[in-house]
Amino acid sequence: MIKLTHIIFLCIVASSCSDNAKLRLLSSDATILALGDSLTYGTGTSRQNAYPTILESLIQRKVINAGVPGEISKKGLLRLPHLIAQHQPDLIIICHGANDFLRKLDIDQTRQNIQQMIDIANKNNIQVLIIGVPEFGLFLNTSPIYQKLAEANNLPVADEVLGNILSKNAYKSDHVHPNALGYQMLAENIHSLLIQSGAISRN
Fold first, then answer.
1. What averages of pLDDT result for each successive group of 10 residues across the chain (203 residues)?
2. Please, what CATH class does the domain formed by 2-197 belong to?
3. Could you tell me if 95 and 40 are in contact, meaning their C-beta atoms sit under 8 angstroms apart?
């Protein structure tokens, strides 16, 4: 029963991923940079169970965990140029904004910060995928800024994945972080989105 529930939930979450925007096929030696805060770092589980580590195993390509717990999007933006120079990534997965929402920072500024991350990636000919983050309130609805950013830049977006994961006690360690199973599901859904967008082949 648990396995069946897990499969059904994966299907529901996967259906929330945008499959319109396309990415170039990543080479077998491509490097992916996972940029974010504690949700990328893996708070709530071990670093070995953080989504970038699991994703690396799923796609058989190097995934750099560049998550910093507690970081706001402004600081992530400031870190990005150095990370690009250091790792020369082919794809950046952006998962930022959670701490902006928790601190009730200006949401339009958060959108602008993430847009500038996308602009920096574009200038360096680096592809981008976005993970939508919920506004942590009574309901775990993803902030509309992520869909708007994806549409404006023609990017794949995992728009409802985190909100769906964090809405189930079985998949979270606290009210803002997944547990090991939750991060596994996040990685699996990013993997599916990479396939849907053409970045990873199906076989």
1. 46 48 97 98 97 98 98 98 98 98 96 98 98 85 96 96 95 95 98 97 82
2. alpha beta
3. yes
